[in-house]
Amino acid sequence: MSDIKAALLAQAIETPSWAYGNSGTRFKVFAQRGVPRDPYEKLADAAQVHAFTGAAPSVALHIPWDKVDDYADLAAHASNLGVRIGAINSNVFQDDDYMLGSVTSPDARVRRKATDHLLECVDVMDATGSDTLKLWFSDGTNYPGQDDIRSRQDRLAESLAEVYDRLGEHQRFLLEYKLFEPAFYTTDVPDWGTAYAHCVKLGPKAQVVVDTGHHAPGTNIEFIVAFLLREGKLGGFDFNSRFYADDDLMAGAADPFQLFRIMFEVIRGGGYTEDVAFMLDQCHNIEPKIAGQIRSVMNVQEATAKALLVDRAALAAAQSAGDVLGANGVFMDAYNTDVRPLLAEVRAEQGLDPDPMAAYARSGYFEKIAAERVGGAQAGWGA
Ligand code: LRH
Ligand code: MN
What we know:
Elements: H1 2-10, E1 13-16, H2 39-53, E2 58-62, H3 71-80, E3 84-89, H4 108-128, E4 132-136, E5 140-141, H5 149-166, E6 172-176, E7 186-187, H6 192-202, E8 206-211, H7 221-230, E9 234-239, H8 256-268, E10 277-280, H9 289-308, H10 312-320, H11 324-335, H12 340-349, H13 356-363, H14 365-372
Parallel strand pairs: 1-2, 1-10, 2-3, 3-4, 4-6, 6-8, 8-9, 9-10
Antiparallel strand pairs: 5-7
The structure holds 6-deoxy-beta-L-fructofuranose and manganese (II) ion (MN).
């Protein structure tokens, strides 16, 4: 059991700065009390998640939502809070110029503008000490014939190559794919295969990020994980969960069994290392945000603990014997194991309260920020 405890102690789950701001749908963004007004306050909230879980030491930024005058100062603020800046997320999906695409736009001026933003994000990595750039493109078309599918891939490849060449020695970028939305006919990076093919052409500093909300219903995500790991091209995850589309609900909330199956393939495939980034990418539209992040980190920890408990020798024996029910039984035994006592022990050994949700509620932090954070513009997706 000590090796499982050691593995859980080593787990690092990155929380997204935007999860602490207001978010919603096209129908409504519900403002909540105590929401941060700037990246400094977002980091303070993220530090609470790490303080109570011991497993969230880094925070992903989104540019320009987290634009500041002095990124080095922001990074120093993070380390004073006991966390560090993680992945830098580009944003080429909220400017009027990007209506017909950003790096794939038919307009060369727009492509130049978009690529320059991606290069600016590498500057932010240099200033904050981040080693990871995460690239998601909303680029796509809404109607057949609207643009040339092949030419858009050429434009995408050209921009990615320029960004790739700009990366420093210890830096990498993660290319994120998504089936649809906001585009509803073609999406230029719609699936793992397209992202993988571009990354293979570029080289070792380009890897694929799997956002668990970005697949067609019924997609076997753990197969994609196993395949990308085998190819050395799995760079990380944007964990969240969904019942229908890109719902961005709490990881493990909608389908904890899927998260368990994914974590098993990560462990089986040798991906339980710091080279595979475990990031959350969620929106707490109606639930308290910091508590929502704490619950999400705990859900990932529980799925990981169950996956670590799979009796690999018994599983391999049943698999090679063609013992279908035996093999499935070994797998389900691990999944059906209540790992909450184990995780409570791991937290206690870290000097943490075994129940992070209750400890955070007792801390009064929410009441404090709700009272303090009056006035100013609450952070959200509107930068
Ligand atoms: C796109 C996405 C991407 C982020 C955004 C916040 O749907 O998953 O990872 O840039 O959400
Ligand atoms: Mn994502």
